[in-house]
Every structure is written in structure tokens, then in C-alpha cells.
Here is the input.
Amino acid sequence: MKKIAFILLLIVQVSLAQEKNKIDNYTVQRLLIFNENNEVLLQNNEYGWSTPGIRNNTRQSIKESLDSLASKFGLKISEHQLKGLFTYKYEFKNEVSYRSHYSAKMNGGILKTPSDMKQAEWFSISEAIEKISNPKTGVSVRSFSEMTTQIFKFPEMLWGGSYLLYQDANGVVRDRKVLEPIYPLGKTSFETNEEDQIRTTINAYLEGTSYNKTESIKEAFYAEANLFLTHKDKKLWIVPIQEYASWFEKKEEGKFNGRIGKILSIDQENDIAMAKAEIKAKGKDIRYVDIFLLKKIEGEWKIISKAATKTN
Here is the structure.
């Protein structure tokens, strides 16, 4: 009897040791939820601002886990799309973990802040990039902002990459180095509707003017386009796009300059479209409204004219 008890005890100890040493290669699913204004949802917890995420090692399908994550914020979603597959390796443990990023559109519900979060808010894409990229407001693992920003800027592609992480003296996980720079895995879809293509063009302009990216600004416009702007000493201030883009050349490229843009509406008929956006200055009581005229030229939507006015 004692021999049997000893064997059972030995089996339990071996099982516990195996369980303790079990490698936990898990996946974290990140979800980019967009509302009708093309604003994206960010959450703020003890680690900083990020897109909603869930550690998925439960008995759920991908769609079930994403829907469950959205419902945590009081939302219903549709049009789930895979946007990125990334790998984390660690210096301090013999494991890997995976980050899968998905996008979806809100199609119902009312936003609420979960009990384990400080805040949950909608942001324009440029505002969201600023929140997650700023070391003071974003999470400590900076590669998160790098991969998420890539998805924001190039939503038509599926992205991959790999990073090595370490733990600092305070136990905070940080980036050590890039193992595989971000690379394209393929296109997320072969067809996009016209409105999505128009949004991509206007967002290239908004992104370019918020982060001093002259090439992004030029790319959004037809080469001979003119901008009709507001000037206190001129009835009509006409500025060619090449001159307008040059205003941003002397500023540091990629650095947020305080301009926050948001698309308000799009009206498209066949190969022409009109769009409206607002521009605000961070920390200032200033608001501009831009009206864009677009035309599809050789398969690409281009801004052929823009008029702007200051509303306050």
C-alpha cells in the first residue's frame, strides 16, 4: 500500500513539474474598430493607450473572440478583416507569442468604458497614431505603435514582422531589437469600394499635413491642382499644390505638428466625388473646414481642387 501511495505521489509531482515548465505560446488579438466617421477606438489602461486586445487561448473561434471583445465595449461589429500577423520572442523566457491585428466596422451599440479600463474613446487616425506613439501616453513596448501605425497608414495590405523583448530592472517589458522588419504578407482584399478609396486619398492628405510628409500630400492631389485658401488680405488666395506641399518641407518629417484632421462626409457619383473634412489645432481654439473635389484619373482617386475656410 505504501508503495502504491509513493508511486501516486511521484506521478503527481512529475505532472506538476511538467505543468510548471509547460511552454505557453499564446496569441493576443488586437481589434481596430472604426465608426461611421472613420474614427478608431482606443482603450487606456495602466499600460497606456492602445487598441483593444484579448489574449486568446480559450475555446472560441476568431470571430467569436473578436465579437466578445467588441461587446466588452458595448459595440457590435461586422466586416472583420485580418490586417497583421506579428511575432514576439523573449530574452527572459523560452516562449514566443503572436499578435494578430484585425479591423472591423461598428454596426451597432453604444460605446462604454469597461470596468478594468480608465478610458475608451474614439479618435481620428492621426490622433490615434499620436496617442500610441507618444512614450508618455502609449504602452512601453514601442513595437506595438510601429506595427499599428503601419496598419493605419496602409490598410489595404496584410503586414508581418518579428521583435525581441526583454525585461528591465523594474520588470517592465520593452523592445530589445527588431528581428524581422515589417514586411507585406499580401493584400487584405482585392477589391475595395469607391468610398474606401476616396477615404484613403483624403487620409493621405490629412496624415501628410499632420506629420509634415510632403510626398503624401502631393500623392493625394492631381499634379496641377490648386487650393483656394483663406487669407486676411486677399479675397481669393490661390495656391498650387506644389507650393502648398513645400510649406511642410522645412519641418521635421514624421513629427506631429498639432493638426488634427477628420473626414466629415463623402458624396460620390461615378468618377467624381466631393468630400468635407475638419481641421483642428491641438491646444488651440481653431477650426478649419476643407471641401475637396475629387476625380478618378487612370484608376486612382485624386484631389483636383480644395477650398478651405476658418470657422472660428
Q: What stands out?
A: Residues 4-12, 14-20 have pLDDT under 50 and may be disordered. The first strand starts at residue 27 and ends at 34.
